[in-house]
Write a structure and sequence with these properties.
Elements (H helix, E strand, L loop, with lengths): L1 E5 L2 E5 L7 E5 L5 E5 L3 H12 L4 E3 L14 E4 L9 E7 L6 E2 L4 E6 L4 E5 L4 E6 L6 E3 L3 E5 L3 H10 L5 H26 L11 H10 L18 H13 L12 H16 L2 E9 L1 H9 L1 H4 L3 H15 L5 E4 L2 E4 L5 E3 L1 E3 L2 E3 L2 E2 L7 H16 L11 E5 L18 E5 L3 E7 L2 E15 L5 H16 L12
Parallel strand pairs: 2-4, 17-21, 21-22
Antiparallel strand pairs: 1-2, 3-4, 3-5, 6-13, 7-9, 7-12, 8-11, 9-10, 11-13, 14-24, 15-16, 17-20, 18-19, 22-24, 23-24
Helix pairs in contact: 4-5, 9-10, 9-11
Length: 471
């Protein structure tokens, strides 16, 4: 028996050529997978079950690719903890193609954004089992790598994919019938066919569920007139409101459901505490003005840069809990909350602590612009997030931590404030910072020191303009 660490969870491997996977529900969502095949495993499971832990066989889950011979399942990734299912927007490879590790093989879409998926293994793409525009749960096989079709068929016979292929065939037949009927109706009326309308898969799905004809909506609010979920939701709410005083009931959009699930879980499972400080903003405003011609930077860039430097100096603020272990990330990946239609997106500036100020300002503008167009970069990679409501005139607020991060910073509006300096009352510009922390990882003294360092960097931003630190 030997243990082998794996990213995100420990795994116990025990001999056996084609083992089944047993998942044990542990406190704090800590998972241990044990490969059955010898007496010590049975003894190990018995000891855990005696402690009240539930065990269940997950024969429908793919086994470790290294144990599958020449067949490797390609799984739908989970880009963010809020995401439970994704849709394949576009395949970039075809069956029979040779793909390389790191190659982008398909584009997937959530209710928030479109993201690219890279191959984790090299090999021959033997079969695609999930077609475009089909929603599937995360971690579901969408394709397989295999040297030849016969090997794949034998492997699938021994490891049936839990009716997934049957569902795909049913969906394809239903889609063909729908398009056939639509084509006949379109030919008769000379109308645009539904398949020709630019719409996101999420919008199509919602329109179908609510009986909305996409052809009646006109150009959408998405890029290039693409119809997106908010466009369909407006059509749903507008219909009963015309000439009616009755209340309107509608289901939560997928994005609102995801937000509701995450913030509720965060407040219920993370012991939040808050520290607040008022910062003099004039030095940072002058810092931005002096560099405006070169970088077009704003105050938010200073705040993000200051957070990146402080997070780099305080390991607890780039850590997360994984069961009974603390995982500390090496880089300060900073998330920036961006308002989008019907919700929020959190694009991430990766390695912000190793950037120059000019580079960070450019990268911040780029990822924010991409998020507003529906492509959120770095989903789930942030270690610390900044939420700024200053431009809306909000003086101060408290933000909810985005799991599995350890903290989040809420930034208020810059406001005029009188201060006493050298026994003289002087006007100044001030803003309020409120830091929300996970008390399981961060203590009050650590939070106070972090906020004091943040205040120092904002009020004395000169060091932020120096060369990037080495990795």
């Amino acid at each position: 028996m030997k243990t082998k660490p794996k990213r995100g969870r420990p795994i116990l491997y025990v001999g056996g050529r084609v083992p089944k996977t047993v998942t044990l529900s542990l406190p704090l969502f800590h998972r241990v997978e044990a490969m059955r095949g010898c007496v010590p495993t049975t003894q190990f499971l018995a000891e855990l079950i005696e402690k009240g832990l539930a065990a269940r066989t997950m024969s429908d889950q793919p086994v470790n690719p290294s144990a599958t011979g020449d067949v490797v399942p390609i799984l739908m990734p989970q880009p963010d903890q809020t995401v439970e299912e994704c849709v394949i927007a576009r395949w970039l490879v075809r069956p029979g193609d040779r793909i390389e590790k790191g190659q982008v093989i398909f584009e997937a879409e959530t209710t928030k954004a479109v993201f690219e998926v890279e191959a984790e293994h090299s090999g021959r793409l033997a079969r695609i089992v999930i077609v475009e525009d089909r929603w599937v749960p995360v971690r579901t096989p969408v394709a397989y790598l295999a040297d030849d079709d016969a090997t794949l068929d034998a492997w699938l016979a021994a490891n049936p994919p839990a009716q997934m292929e049957e569902e795909v065939r049913t969906d394809q037949q239903g889609l063909a019938q729908t398009l056939s009927r639509s084509a006949e109706a379109g030919d008769e009326a000379g109308a645009v066919k539904p398949a020709e309308i630019k719409a996101s898969p999420a919008a199509r799905r919602l329109a179908e569920e609510r009986g909305i004809d996409l052809r009646t909506l006109g150009p959408g609010s998405g890029p290039d007139g693409r119809i997106v979920v908010p466009d369909v939701e407006k059509a749903i709410t507008a219909a009963p409101m015309a000439g009616s005083e009755e209340s309107v009931r509608r289901p939560l959009s997928p994005m609102r459901r995801a937000i509701a699930r995450v913030v509720t879980a965060s407040k219920q499972t993370i012991p939040h505490f808050y520290v607040k400080a008022t910062v003099q903003a004039e030095p940072a405003l002058r810092f931005c003005e002096a560099r405006k011609a070169q970088t077009a930077a704003g105050l938010n860039d200073v705040l993000v840069m200051a957070c990146a430097k402080a997070v780099g100096e305080f390991p607890a603020f780039r850590s997360r809990l994984d069961g009974n272990e603390v995982v500390t990330r090496p880089s300060a990946n900073i998330g920036i909350i961006v308002a989008v239609e019907d919700g929020l997106a959190v694009p991430v500036v990766r390695g912000a602590d190793r950037m120059t100020f000019e580079h960070l300002a450019q990268e911040t503008r780029r990822v924010i612009a991409a998020a507003r167009e529906g492509k959120v970069e770095g989903l789930g990679e942030a270690v610390f997030t900044v939420s700024n409501l200053g431009k809306y005139g909000v003086e101060e607020f408290t933000a909810i931590i985005h799991p599995p991060e350890a903290a989040i910073l809420a930034v208020g509006a810059v406001r005029d404030q009188a201060i006493v300096q050298d026994n003289t009352v002087k006007p100044s510009k001030a803003l309020t910072l409120t830091l929300s922390c996970d008390h399981r990882l961060i203590d009050g003294v650590q939070a106070a020191r972090f906020l004091a360092r943040l205040k120092e960097l904002i009020e004395n931003p000169g060091p932020l303009d120096r060369s990037a630190t080495s990795p």
